[in-house]
Design goal:
Blueprint (H helix, E strand, L loop, with lengths): L8 E4 L3 H9 L2 H12 L5 H5 L1 H33 L18 H8 L3 H4 L9 H25 L2 E10 L5 E10 L7 H7 L1 H13 L5 H14 L2 H25 L5 H18 L2 H15 L13 H5 L4 H5 L3 H17 L1 H4 L17 H4 L7 H10 L5 H13 L7 H10 L10 H10 L1 H10 L1 H4 L4 H6 L10 E3 L4 H8 L3 H11 L12 H25 L18 H11 L2 H9 L8
Parallel strand pairs: 1-4
Antiparallel strand pairs: 2-3
Helix pairs in contact: 1-26, 2-27, 4-5, 4-7, 8-11, 9-10, 11-12, 11-13, 13-16, 20-27, 28-29, 29-30
Amino acid sequence: MNNPWATSGFIDLANLSRAIERHGKSKNHIDCAVKLKLFGRVRIDEALDLARTISTKKHNEQVKKNRDILRKLIIAALYLARQEQAFRGHNEAAGSSNRGNFVELSLTLHLRSTWDRTVFSGMSNTIQNDIIESIARSIQDETDKEIHISPFIAVQVDDTSDISNKCQLTVIIRYVNEKGRVRAVHAIHEGRGSLCIAFDKIMTEPGWDKETIAQSASLKQKLEDFDFTFLLGVFQSIFGLTEPLFQVLQSKTVDIKKCQDRIMSTLRALKATRTDETFSRIYEETVKAVGDPVPRRKRCRRGWDDLEQGFNQHQEGDEETVVSFRRLYFQIVDIVLHMTQRFADMEHLNFFRILEHTSFASFCNPAAFPSSELAQLINTYPFFDEQKLRNELQTLYSNRLFHKPPGELIELLIEDDLQGTLSEDRLVNLATISIDSVVVEDLKATGKFYDILYCWDCLLFGADSGSWARDGYSDLGSLSKSAHRHQNASGHLRATIRLKTFGDTRIELQLDEQQRRVKRNRGILKRLINCVVYLGKQELPFRGHDESVTSSNKGNYIELLDLVAEYDSDLHTHLATSTPDQRCR
């Protein structure tokens, strides 16, 4: 390396300040500083005691494997119970062509090594019952906690007699917790008929107080009002389109492009509802539910001539009812479409793509570096040093250790003391000075302490041959500018990162990225094929009646994929970032 901060030292004391500032922003310096921060994190006792290290590693691997096996058994039980499928088979022997849903699904989830065990396989009827009981108990405990803290509870009790004339009691508990979504418009629109029946019973059956009866009559009158029912249908159709957008915007995502795409798709869907066909459908449904509306009278001044001529005020004063509701419908939709103005400045937030951790690997390629987003960030917040920030981002993208969500990345930076570009290992440096007293005296005698400066990060891990890492920097007259320029250099930043991550580098992280991607894609395809084979072998239907995002049961195939993806990060990422066609659904 030719960096004087790491080789011969910096001797231009006149320019020391600028040289330090420039060197501190360089990529090499940052790489070296990061490696230095992370140096020495390996425990000495474990490093020296090889037997202890190997034993601990094997134990941890076995514990991890056992937990993974139990997790997959729980996955299989959850899926079969959710889809209401049978667990056991008529013949579960090893030579059987169909050993039942539970065994076949477990083998689909790569548990063949567990099945081949002679002592404990986890496939017996007793183990299945224990897993089902544990799952049910966990659900019951969580339900009890939610009921205990819920402010509103409704209890419904019913009994019926079976064939042996024994009474069977049924208890239904309904409650609302802080995680629940009320969805009042949808609930009232879908359950309007049931609500009217309930209000009728309250008004006709004895035992109800006058206040409750009066409130029930008022609510029933409101539900039978044409205007209210029509608006209920209008907003139910609108909220059905805007609810997915609300969920995306309320999530903790930094993918502004995804938010923009969702906004545009919602706008297109809303514009598609601004048609006479949609209005006619809602209007006809309202008429079918509550009857024809009461005609609206137009207010206008009439003279004596109209009365003398026998003018029929009722007939000519009635406004065309359908036209008035049509006008109201289009006004509501137009108001909602004004959200384009609310999100007009969304494009100015594209610079958040810089923090999109799922794209860090692709950003390593210079051609894929988010230069336009970085320029937008600098234009919006000009107090950033563009050169330094660019080098820091390049270092961030090139190290897989930092390919994490923003929250986890901040925790890593704090944990490893990577917040600052320049390291401040005061105690380590003081100890070095105290221990190497002979070297200190030699350096004082030769004058290198006073005439030459080095960059510690670049000296250890710098890849270039700059003066800061090779011969040292001696132009003290230009030190300030030189240090500032070196600090922003990409080589200094790389050295800082390498220094602070030294000791955490793992061999598998150095493997070729393309091979890892191919292996990951093959694993995803293998899981898709296994799901198809399992459903086909068990003669189970693939599709569901409603496969939309809000559906509670999207069919066996999609539910199986979602369940496996919940515990498979590669498949989960594939389903979350792909279009419906790319998901192979």
